[in-house]
Structures are given as structure tokens and as C-alpha cells.
Amino acid sequence: MSHFIQTIFDLLSNLGYLGIALGLMVEVIPSEIVLAYGGYLVSIGKISFAGAVVAGTIGGVIAQWFLYWIGKYGGRPFLDKYGKYLLIKPSHIDVAQNWFSKYGSGVIFTARFIPVVRHAISIPAGIAKMSFSKFSFYTVLAIIPWSILFLYLGMKLGSKWDQINNVAKPYVTPAIIIAIILALIYFIIKWRNSKRKR
Q1: Whether 114 contacts 176, CB under 8 Å
Q2: What pLDDT, on the 0 to 100 scale, is given for residue 127?
Q3: Cα atoms in the 13 Å half-sphere on the side-chain side of 90
Q4: CB count, 10 Å around CB of 99?
Q5: Phi, psi (degrees; rounded to nearest 5) at 99
Q6: Could you give the residue ranges of the DSSP H alpha helices within the chain?
Q7: I want to staple 126 with a disulfide (CB 3.0 to 4.6 A). Which of 72, 109, 132, 174 is the partner?
Q8: Run of H or E residues at 130
Q9: In this structure, is the dihedral angle defined by the CA atoms of residues 92, 53, 18 and 133, taken in order, positive or negative?
Q10: 108 contacts 138 by C-beta, under 8 angstroms
């Protein structure tokens, strides 16, 4: 682990719950790694699991609010110019926009479990000026189980929390499948309702 990353984790450790929230808000390090480290802090008794879930949810949601507002008030031109500083490539935005256009607002939940689009999906929601309350609802709904999963795995790994990417693979795939199934159910209900209105 690089000295820079270790310095960040030392800071997160000293700040406790606030450190987890800030780590997810800034997103310099992937959320699953920050949460796994939070799970490690739970395992050594520095913070509680429930408190870590709350901190992880708050930090994760605020990070997505930030991207939503950038999309809403800055638009695509701003993101094409400055997106690289947010570690978001134009290709990521393209994929996210296609998903959002094709599947609608419900994809805000599903996409949280899919690599590449899970962070960028907030941007087209902002560009489309999706209802902020609905956006927040779907985001919270997805971030809570995501936080619980990686905090739990980090807690079980203990001092080996940095191996989270290898350990999480058998859990992430089922999570993606479940998210897709839930999304299909949502789209079917939405289609039936629109059909009835017609």
C-alpha cells in the first residue's frame, strides 16, 4: 500500500465516523475499500457497526448529491472539460446516459451495483433534472445495503481488510443479479401502469 493511501487511512481512523463519511464523499479511494477499512475499525472496537453504516450512508449519498448537482447545473460541457478531475471519463457518462434514457429513474438504484456506471449514473439524473427527492430515495435505498455488505466483510477480514476486492467477488455478483431482478420488476410495474393509463 502506498504511503499516500496509508496516510489517508490513518486520517480516517483518527476521525472515526466522520472519517468514513469524508472518505466516501471525496472518493479518492473506491467506496468498497473505505467501507472495508471501516469494517476493520469496527472489528477492533474503535467504532460501532450501526454508526459505521450511518456514516457510510451519509457520505455515499452526499457524494452522489454532488455529482447530481454538477449534472444539473454544469451539464455535459462542464463534465467533458472537468470530469477527469473527478475521475469520471466521458465514456462512463455516455454509458450512464444511455442507461438512464433507456430505463428511466429506476436505474438510479440498479446502477449502484454495476461497475463503471455506479458513480456516473448520478450525472444524467442531474442533467435530466430528475426529482431530487426521488433521486435521493433511490440512492439511499441502494447505498445502505452496499455499505452494510462491505462493512461486514471488512469486519470479518479484520487486519486483512485490504484483501476486500478478492473476498467481495462472490458477494458482488449475486448483488448485481438481485439488483437487475428488482429493476425488471420495477420496469414491468411501470409498463403496466402506463398501459392502464392509456
Answers
A1: yes
A2: 86
A3: 6
A4: 19
A5: -60, -45
A6: 3-15, 17-26, 31-43, 49-73, 75-82, 90-103, 107-110, 117-120, 122-127, 132-157, 164-197
A7: 72
A8: none
A9: positive
A10: yes
**For residue 112, what are the CA distances in angstroms to 3, 73, 115, 144, 146?**
30, 22, 8, 11, 8
Contact status, residue 36 vs residue 157, Cβ threshold 8 Å = yes
Residue count (the chain): 198
> Of 140, 178, 145, nearest to 64 (Cα)?
140
- SS3 category, 24: helix
pLDDT score, position 176 = 64
- Euclidean distance between CA atoms 82 and 88, whole angstroms: 9
CB neighbour list of residue 165: distance below 8 Å, 6 or more residues apart: 32, 33
- Per the structure block, which three cell numbers stand in for 82? 472537468
d(CA 112, CA 159): 27
Q: What pLDDT is attached to residue 175?
A: 63
